[in-house]
Write a structure and sequence with these properties.
Helix content is about 55%, strand content about 20%. The protein is an alpha+beta fold. The protein is globular, with a radius of gyration of 16 Å.
């Protein structure tokens, strides 16, 4: 029962967080920034946010720095949008799974072209 509740909270936070990030006016955060996953702790005090940013390493670092600097605003905005007892503190981490998937897809396409 508790796992289902946390799973629903994770998905709701992910969905709303994507909307909040789209509305940010920080030039360091590109439009190609995606929220891959969110893991909220059982006590709702922290939420680890996995972010994918398309671009080079410098762009990714700038985007992560922009998200970290806007963490207070993001937390306040999320508190307004979702009805939770406690609004979690957000910890942003880069996720490279989308880039990895694109790389694997490119390798498969290259193999198919050779055959």
């Amino acid at each position: 029962m508790a796992k289902d509740r946390i799973h629903k909270i994770n998905e709701e936070v992910r969905r709303e967080l994507a909307g909040v990030i789209r509305e940010l006016k920080d030039a360091r955060i590109p439009m190609m920034t995606s929220i891959v996953a969110v893991h909220v702790t059982n006590d709702l005090s922290y939420a680890k946010v996995y972010v994918s940013v398309m671009g080079d390493e410098e762009t990714q670092k700038k985007a992560l720095a922009g998200l970290k600097s806007a963490a207070g605003f993001i937390r306040r905005e999320m508190g307004r949008r979702i009805d939770l007892r406690v609004t979690p503190e957000f910890i942003f981490e880069l996720d490279h799974s989308i880039e990895y998937g694109a790389h694997i897809n490119q390798m498969i396409n290259d193999l198919n072209k050779k055959q």
